[in-house]
Structures are given as structure tokens and as C-alpha cells.
Amino acid sequence: MMGGRILIVDDDETGAGHLRSALARRGYAVALVTSGVDALAWLREQPADLVLAHARMVPMSGTELCAALRVLQPELPTIVITGDSTLASAVAAIRAGVFDYVAKPIDLVALTVAIERAIGQVNLRRELAGLRDAPVAAPSVGALVGRSPAIRAVAEVVQKVADSDTTVLIIGESGTGKELVARALHDSSSRRDLPFAAINCGAVPGGLLESELFGHVRGAFTDAQRARTGLIAHAGAGTLFLDEIGEMSLEMQVKLLRVLQERRVRPVGGDEEQPFAARVIAATNRDLESAVVARTFREDLYYRINVVQIAVPPLRARVSDVLMLAQHFIAKIAARTGKGALGIGATAARLLLDYDWPGNVRELENCLERAVALCADDEIAAGHLPEKVRDAQRARLPVAVGAPAGIASLAEVEHRHVRHVLDAVGGNKTMAAAILGIDRRSLYRRLAEGSGRPEVA
Q: Average pLDDT per run of 10 along the chain, which is 457 residues long?
């Protein structure tokens, strides 16, 4: 339960008292008044997250109270409890601006769901207002934006190893921001004023990658009209970032391994080796452990680059960062395109939160670039988002709230969560273990305990 402050307005003190006790047991702070007039006086003195009013009261009915609150406190949601579940009563409630209405006899589960939806909407609007009115706080590590436990864990590792010479392997799905993490490592280190030399190993044809990395001397091959310094030499004592290293050919892996072992590089066609002092950071969206087993990636090179591993979580594993990232991108895009300050509407925000983001942070940024381009007002609305975002719904794990027999044990909840994280990262056990903050052996044990059978690695 998310909790919140609820004001019950009902002239039936006995029935309302029972309801107050039931909601208090579910973690809500509940106050009770017996008339609409008393409710208005109470709300002038203290805040509430939700008003729960009985429809039939005198002299001010619950519906009339909701209509008054719509004028006085338009952001405060109201739920009406009614013994009349006809279409006419529903229409009257909607016209009064009621968030929802619940018919008697009260189904406490249905009422709790309605309350959570209403308070969730309030909290969402407050978060959006805060993000729009106050600039996104400067991230503590590089350009990493977010407050979720998953991204804080990444930032902690970055801070711990930034100033060391240790080789780092960054793993994560495409679009999660692996290069941002690499740059955060560089910018947080004493090498920040030295070069950051980056290359995408999957984007350069195999025959050219050696020359790009090591450089070449004049006449080394047909088109080598002049000598060229490679990226390793260019990096100097700075940082060399090898993106998508999992796409590198086996032949090139052998050559790179020797360079990393000897800390010396020889240009293609040259005779002299030159020392290099750059810190090496590699990144991949592939499961290199599986690639080692399949013999498509050298085991010795894997252990050479995988001294410290940083797992960058997919966006669906850090949903609490979505709106902060969204407002960050909107501000950046609006400034670049000359638009004024833009916010995010509540409906659009809910769609952003409900979408799974298979393309991760990169897809979110592209989505918002489109939204800013289409937005002619001061707020991103649902219609500005791509159709796939508007139509998608997040698959949620249901939580049993009925009889005790339907409530999951702690062990089962833990197993479900482990499975949920594993599914979220596409079955990559190394990344799942890193997000959960446990080692792979502990992950296998938890999976085995939940399934009742040994887990095969």
C-alpha cells in the first residue's frame, strides 16, 4: 500500500468508524467528519490526499461537496460512496468532478484499488510539478540522471573505481547509456583533462579496425599514403573506450590481447613498439560468458577486460527514473530547438511509466524529441507520444489482497522478484545478479529454492 491521508465525510458515524479502522489497518492516515460543512473547515486547516464522501448527507450531499472541492481544491481527488448505483447517479458524480464512486455494500478490495489509483494520480501530479518548477538536480556522477537504487548502485561503483587504473567492462542492453557510464568514469578521474578516445568495434569493418586502433605507417597497405596515429596512441594517458567489444573478430581479439598484456602497441606495417598508458574501458550488449563457451570470444581476453564489471540496468528496471529522465530530455531538447519551458501532462506521464522501453534510454529520448517537435502548447500531452507508447500497457505482477490463503510467502515474493529481474534483462544472469546486488552463486540458489529443483547455470 502506498499510504496517504484520507478524510472520510459521512453522517453515519458508526459505519464510517468501521471504514476508518479498516483503512487505517491498510496503512492510511484517516480522519473523520460528519458533514460537508465540517469537511470544508477541516480542509482549510490541514491537507489531505483524498476525500471519501457519502453521497446522501444533509444539508450538503457528498456530490455537492465534491463539486465545491472541484472549485476550491481542483487537484484533490474525491470518491463518493453511494447506495444508488444507477446510471443517473454515475452521471451526476462525473459532472461533479468525482474521481470514482463505489456502491454499497462496500467491497474493501475494490475501494482500496480506487483509493490507490486516486492517491497515485495526486503523487504523479506533484512529482511532475516538482520536476517542471525546479531544474533536475545535477547528477552526482558524470551525466547519470536518476535516483533509483539501480542507477545509484552504478554511480557508487563509478565513484569507487574512477581513479584507479583498473580495466572496466560495462555490460547492458543497447541504449542503456553504457558510453555515459564510461564518460562518467573518465570525468570523475584524475584523467578528466586528458583525451577520451572512443571507438565502436562493431561499426568499423574488420580490416580497418586494426589500423584505427593501432595506427599505421606510410605504405603499410595500398591506400596508406601517409602515417596515421591510432586511437590507442591518441588516448595517451587518458581513457580508451572500446564500445561493443563483443563484435570484434577472433583475429583482432588476439592482437588486442597482446597489446593489453604488454601495454605496448605497434602500428600496422611498423617495426617499433610504443608504450601506452591509457586506462581501458570496454562495453558490450552481448553475454560474453556465453560467447566464451561458444568460442566466439576469447576466454583470456574476457578475463583481461573483466577486472571490474558494471551492469547498466535497462530502463524497465528503473521505472522510478523515467519521469526525471523525461523532464531532463525535454529541457535539453527545448533549449536546443528554441522552445520555452515544457512540462508533462499527467496522462502522458502515466503512459511513459506504463511503457516497457525496449530501446531503453535512447528510445525515451527519441520519443521525447518527437513530442517536443509536435507540442504547440506548454505541456507534453498523450497525443504527442508515438502510437506504440500510447497503446502499450505494462505487464504487472498481481498482488493478492484477499484471504490469507491467497497471500504469497516472503520466499515466494523473493523468488518472483528474482524471476522478474531476470526476465527484465533478457535472461542475462550476470546482469540480473548485479542489479539484485548478489553474486551469481546466490542467484542460482534463490532460483533453485523457488522452483524446488536445481538451477542449471
A: 81 88 91 91 91 86 85 86 62 66 82 86 76 54 79 92 94 94 94 95 85 78 72 93 95 93 86 89 95 95 95 91 90 86 86 92 94 89 91 49 43 71 70 72 74 46
- Within 8 A by CB and 6+ apart from 368, the residues are 326, 329, 330, 333, 380
Is there a shared CATH topology between the 317-391 domain and the 404-451 domain? no
| DSSP-assigned beta bridge partners for residue 428 | none
Give the class (CATH, top level) of 317-391: mainly alpha
Which residues does 434 contact at the CB level (< 8 Å), separation at least 6? 153, 171, 309, 310, 311
β-strands 308-311, 274-275 pairing: unpaired
Question: What pTM value is reported for the model?
Answer: 0.66
Judge: domain 149-311, CATH 3.40.50.300: yes
Cell of 384: 504527442
Every domain of the chain and the residues it spans = 5-133, 149-311, 317-391, 404-451
